Amino acid sequence: SFKCRDSTLEGMQCRLESSGDLQTSAASCSLPCRPLPRSVRDALSLVHPEVTKRFFGCGLPFPAKLEGCRVLDLGSGSGRDCYAFSKLVGPSGRVTGVDMTEELYIEYHQKKFGYEKPNVTFVQGYMEKLSEAGIQNDSVDVVLSNCVVCLCPDKRAVLQQAYNILKEGGELYFSDMYASKVVPDHMKEDPVLWGEGMGGSLFWQDLIPLAHSGGFSTPHLVSASHIAIYSSELKAKAGDVSFASGTYRLFKLPKSPVVSKVTVTYKGTVADFPDQLDFDSSHCFKKDVAVSVNGEMAAILQRSRFSPDFKIQVSDQPESDSGSTPQVADVLCLPERK
């Protein structure tokens, strides 16, 4: 078993030996709604079986176009995602895992991937205190995380730290558990519910203002699925609060917004996506097909690592309100805040 990220998890999280010990379907939510790209499937298949066995997560936070990137994994746990990222970023990329766990199997994966030297490091630290772990501001291309933000009481600090260490145009791409309403205090104080991720789940509607307060762009939902609770005892404790797994992507953009409506055309140049790039649940870019996007999405495509993959044409027409971006509740029909 691995060390706890927080002392409140002792007595629950420290007893978990594999994702099969969880009392919800959170771990099975890592099954993708679309077929995984071959590169991701291959990378995951090469991870040491013991690392995979001890993995805990509620999604598959594997965005496209990671080659050559400097990647940081928040709450890396057993290291499964880190080692898969190691393969995806290639020998010129770099992966850092942050957790309170010990580093294992680095040399095994270096040899498995055929690298002259390892491109993965693990640092012990807390995701709400990345600067204390030695992570420099404006130094990371992509921050990834898999179902650990729900285990941290101070989510605002986590998002702010992620924003600070990202380069301009960088991305936070993470999977996490979300609640259908604000989780009451008695659930937050229950060590079993906290260890399952339920006690610390964010009310889905609070993510957008939390992201904006930290400087991020509007979160875009990539995928979501309902989380089933197997234990009758946990069902009783949860009451009328339901849970979902959601994967979102957020970007660190320049302070000057793009206000014009923009037409973008995907060039088909992202590896694994020659015909169509499914950017999120509401943006699907087909090769050589012009699509109108709002100013913020235009800024994302212009300023991020995806800039070379799009032809971008600014329109003279003012931008109209294109409506809100899909959220976990839109997919799972969770109730609105009353």
Automatic annotation (TrEMBL):
SUPFAM superfamilies xref list: S-adenosyl-L-methionine-dependent methyltransferases (SSF53335)
GO molecular-function terms, A-Z: arsenite methyltransferase activity
Q: What class of enzyme is it?
A: transferase
What GO terms in the biological process aspect are recorded for it?
arsonoacetate metabolic process; toxin metabolic process
Q: Name one GO cellular component term.
A: cytosol
Which Enzyme Commission numbers does its entry carry? Answer: 2.1.1.137
User: What is catalyzed by this enzyme?
Assistant: arsenic triglutathione + 3 [thioredoxin]-dithiol + 3 S-adenosyl-L-methionine = trimethylarsine + 3 [thioredoxin]-disulfide + 3 glutathione + 3 S-adenosyl-L-homocysteine + 3 H(+); arsenic triglutathione + [thioredoxin]-dithiol + S-adenosyl-L-methionine + 2 H2O = methylarsonous acid + [thioredoxin]-disulfide + 3 glutathione + S-adenosyl-L-homocysteine + H(+); arsenic triglutathione + 2 [thioredoxin]-dithiol + 2 S-adenosyl-L-methionine + H2O = dimethylarsinous acid + 2 [thioredoxin]-disulfide + 3 glutathione + 2 S-adenosyl-L-homocysteine + 2 H(+)
Domain Methyltransferase: residue ranges: 67-200
Family affiliation: Belongs to the methyltransferase superfamily. Arsenite methyltransferase family.
Write the protein's name: Arsenite methyltransferase
What is the organism field in this record?
Cyclopterus lumpus (Lumpsucker)
